[in-house]
Known about the structure:
This protein is mainly beta. The chain contains 1 helix and 6 strands; from the N terminus they run E-E-E-E-H-E-E.
Amino acid sequence: MKxxxxxxEVTGTRAGNAILFTCPDCQKDxxxxxxxxxxxxxxxxxxxxxxxxxxxxxxTPDGSPVKQRVxxxxxxx
Length: 77
Ligand SMILES: [Zn+2]
């Protein structure tokens, strides 16, 4: 089920193993730490603001240090 079209898109930046983004609604600076490279190197990911709890699609179009890989879609059982 896809619901990403309902979420506002926010551009984030990569720093170390975290994604930084500023909430467009309350201007809170958020950071999300990813321990899994598979999640970290995605171009988009969903996250919620730690202050106002709104959910956004976080974009990191600045490219990753490794070559883009295509991951298979998870199989639905
Ligand atoms: Zn917020």
